[in-house]
Design brief:
Blueprint: H1 3-28, E1 34-37, E2 40-46, E3 49-62, E4 65-75, E5 80-91, E6 95-105, E7 110-120, E8 124-134, E9 139-142, E10 146-150, E11 154-157, E12 159-163, E13 168-179, E14 182-192, E15 197-207, E16 211-221, E17 226-237, E18 240-250, E19 255-266, E20 271-281, E21 286-297, E22 305-316, E23 323-335, E24 338-348, E25 353-357, E26 361-364, E27 367-370, E28 373-379, E29 382-397, E30 403-416, E31 419-426, E32 430-436, E33 442-449, E34 452-458, E35 461-468, E36 472-476
Antiparallel strand pairs: 1-3, 2-3, 3-4, 4-5, 5-6, 6-7, 7-8, 8-9, 8-10, 9-12, 10-11, 11-13, 12-13, 13-14, 14-15, 15-16, 16-17, 17-18, 18-19, 19-20, 20-21, 21-22, 22-23, 23-24, 24-25, 24-26, 25-28, 26-27, 27-29, 28-29, 29-30, 30-31, 30-32, 31-34, 32-33, 33-36, 34-35
């Protein structure tokens, strides 16, 4: 054998022998980092430190963790590894980490990876500039900004924590989660990669093509599109806004539920709804609100209509896309030119028709209007006309205990500038009204029985009366009739029930 061959054989034998020795030492101490292979090996001594320098296809191992790189330094007494270029860590065949540089403490099993860092598991891939990872506890941390890509979601943040055993990420500062169907922005976010649920804390916004959600606390399941929101929670969807102390929203079913301090706003119809509890169904286009509920309908020149009741319902009519509005139990209406109370109400937007049922009372100026059912029409935000069905009675107060009264089976009235202009009485007509000499002095009181009657009004007062079909009319002196004779059947004065403000 030549001298050169003897030298080569000796070097390879020495390197193999060193690997064998190191392997035996590592076997004696399971916590020691093992050397599995390298193309070149140098043994250095720096002061009292023993350093192994490995170059080319370096392979290291500690228990169930494998490490690969182009070159590395192993500080034997400290059980510390520095690895350079094409660094790769494979932990327990579940997590793979790539980077340009690695500092690894074999005693604590904590790693610092820098430069083009990528961490991959079965659920996602993380990229960042620097990652601290605890292999023993499977916990990772970055503070230089990171990006996580899973099957359907992409998430970026300034700071992130990864708990592999829990399959959870915790993110802070400028958190952005992007999904094909929505975008979520938050200050703080906890995300579980198994149940696909994001839990957010602080100012949060979730946006899609048709929906936008704002809140400061809650959760969102990205798999089934169900969510819960609280603290200044607001949902914008289909030209509507829903806000409350607490909101639940099922995007697929298009159902939103709200609790406490509810506010619903329809930007097209200019309607506000308020209450303590509510539910909105986007498929049926029906919204319920109850518990201290009231509605505000914006009219022209800010002359709004306010409506109060136990329960409010708004439904969008399919063909016209106009709305059907219902209120029931203890209904109160306030508008500057009209007020009303009843047990239930229906407003059909197609016809601008509002229907009052069950002991309704309506006030217009000096007139109190009652009937079994009251229908009135709103045109350009003003009371335009009305119909009184069954047991109709209109009363206006004169001086003292004197009241003008018009009674009939049914009535129809027309308005001018929200004041009574014309009135027609159909069937069983009766009237009591006081004739005046001037604005102060009375001539007497007219008592009329007539099946059908027509009245014209000026400034809300009777100006002209026409009696049809053989009227029985008598003008009596003021003191000629007893008090009970000056009251038509069913007369009651309800001024104390009149809504005076919204």
């Amino acid at each position: 054998m030549t001298q050169i061959m003897r030298i080569i054989t000796f070097r390879y034998f020495s390197l193999f022998f060193l690997y064998l020795i190191l392997g035996q030492i590592s076997a004696q101490n399971k916590n020691k980092v093992e050397i599995l292979g390298a193309q070149n090996f140098e043994y250095l001594k720096l002061g009292n430190k023993n350093i192994s320098k490995l170059i080319g296809n370096v392979q290291l191992k500690q228990q169930n963790t494998l490490m690969f790189c182009d070159s590395s330094l192993i500080f034997e007494s400290e059980n510390v590894v520095e690895a350079f270029n094409n660094v790769k860590i494979n932990h327990n065949d579940s997590v793979t980490i790539l980077g340009d540089y690695l500092y690894y403490d074999g005693n604590t099993k904590k790693a610092l990876i820098k430069g083009n860092v990528r961490m991959v598991d079965k659920q996602m891939e993380l990229t960042t500039d620097q990652l601290d990872y605890d292999l023993a506890n499977q916990f990772g941390y970055y503070a230089t900004g990171g990006k996580i890509v899973s099957k359907e979601n992409t998430l970026t943040s300034n700071i992130g924590y990864y708990y592999a055993r829990k399959n959870e990420f915790f993110f802070k500062k400028k958190v952005l989660l992007t999904n094909p169907d929505y975008v979520m922005q938050s200050d703080t976010l906890l995300y579980n990669t198994l149940n696909k649920t994001a839990y957010f804390f602080g100012s949060t916004q979730i946006s899609s093509d048709k929906d936008k959600i704002l809140c400061e606390n809650g959760w969102y399941n990205t798999q089934n599109d169900q969510s819960q929101f609280s603290k200044n929670a607001i949902i914008f969807t289909d030209r509507k806004m829903l806000e409350a102390d607490s909101l639940y929203y099922d995007k697929r079913a298009k159902i939103g539920k709200a609790y406490r301090r509810i506010h619903v706003y329809d930007s097209v119809q200019k309607i506000h709804l308020y209450g303590d509890r509510g539910i909105s169904n986007g498929k049926t286009k029906i919204t319920y609100v109850n518990g201290n509920s009231y509605a505000l309908k914006l009219m022209e020149k800010m002359d709004s209509l306010f409506l109060f009741s136990d329960t409010l319902l708004v439904a969008e009519r399919t063909l016209s896309q106009k709305q059907l509005f219902k209120a029931y139990h203890q209904v109160r209406i306030y508008k500057s030119d009209m007020q009303a109370i009843c047990d239930s109400l229906v407003y059909i937007q197609d016809d601008s028709l509002m229907q009052l049922f069950k002991k309704p009372i309506m006030w217009n100026g000096v007139n109190q209007i009652t009937a079994d059912t009251i229908l009135f029409y709103i045109n350009n935000g003003k009371l335009d006309s009305f119909n009184l069905l069954k047991d109709a009675l209109i009363v206006s107060k004169e001086k003292g205990a004197h009241y003008n009264q018009i009674k009939g089976r049914d009535m129809a009235g027309a308005m001018d500038s929200s004041m009574l202009k014309e009135l027609k009485v159909f069937g069983n007509g009766q009237s009591i009204f006081y004739a005046k000499e001037d604005s102060v002095n009375y001539i007497g009181v007219n008592v009329v029985d007539c099946s059908e009657m027509n009245f014209e009004f000026k400034n809300g007062q009777i100006n002209k009366a026409t009696f049809i079909s053989s009227p029985d009319a008598t003008l009596h002196p003021l003191d000629a009739l007893k008090p009970e004779e000056l009251r038509l059947k069913g007369f009651k004065w309800f001024e104390h029930l009149r809504p005076k403000r919204f």
